[in-house]
Amino acid sequence: MAHMALTSAPALTVGFDLDMTLIDSRPGIRACYQALSERTGTYIDADLAVTRLGPPLAEELINWFPEDEITAMGDLYRSMYPAIAITATLAMTGAREAIDAVRAAGGRAIVVTAKYEPNAKLHLEHLGIHPDEVVGDLWAEQKAEALREHGAGVYVGDHVGDVRGARKADALSVAVATGPCSAEELTAAGADVVLGDLTEFPAWLAGYRPARA
User: Fold this and answer.
1) 147-179: per-residue pLDDT in tens?
2) pTM for this one?
3) What is the mean predicted confidence (pLDDT) over 124-138?
4) What CA–CA distance (Å, rounded) separates 135 from 139?
5) DSSP assignment of 36-80, as one string?
6) What is the number of helices (H) and of strands (E) in the chain?
7) CA 52 – CA 49 distance, rounded (Å)
8) To which H or E segment does residue 123 belong?
9) Is 58:184 a contact under the CB 8 Å cutoff?
10) Does residue 184 carry a pLDDT above 90?
11) Strands, E assignment, 64-184
């Protein structure tokens, strides 16, 4: 019976953030903010906005619109997004290889993101990145809900909010310094591992699994 308990350990599940972790959405989001500005006649510094990706859309819109317009502006932005932002967005270097590394290790790869879920799925489909699950509309500590539901033992992200989500889910926080937060900020927030980018992830994962076993 003891042998059966050891061999029935749950399979590895790794969660990934989306923006600035798996995809470089800055060109598409910049274009969408510029279009929203033109459509509404409201000034938006799109170049500034794309330096602070990660939090929910409403947290950026509040810098440019009155509070009572945020819901409507968010709906308008999301409706414009597919036609403007999807084809302008690129995969981060190493993104596909990171997903493949999880699969090669016999694990499952899921995406947990603050982005509107239908648009997140459009990005991944367009770029040919195929995780096992995609869960959107969750930010920071809220991400723990999906990480726990899917049994993720590792969460990979680029923002201190991703670190907080991993820690709340009791998952190992693997941070990549490819977004708005520096390696020092990610470490200070409590990341267990900080990588320069996803190209370092397969080698890290290869070393992590024997230690887990």
Assistant:
1) 999 999 999 999 999 999 999 999 999 999 999
2) 0.92
3) 98
4) 11
5) HHHHHT----HHHHGGG-SS-HHHHHTTTS-GGGHHHHHHHHHHH
6) 11, 8
7) 6
8) helix 117-127
9) no
10) yes
11) 90-91, 108-112, 133-135, 154-157, 172-176
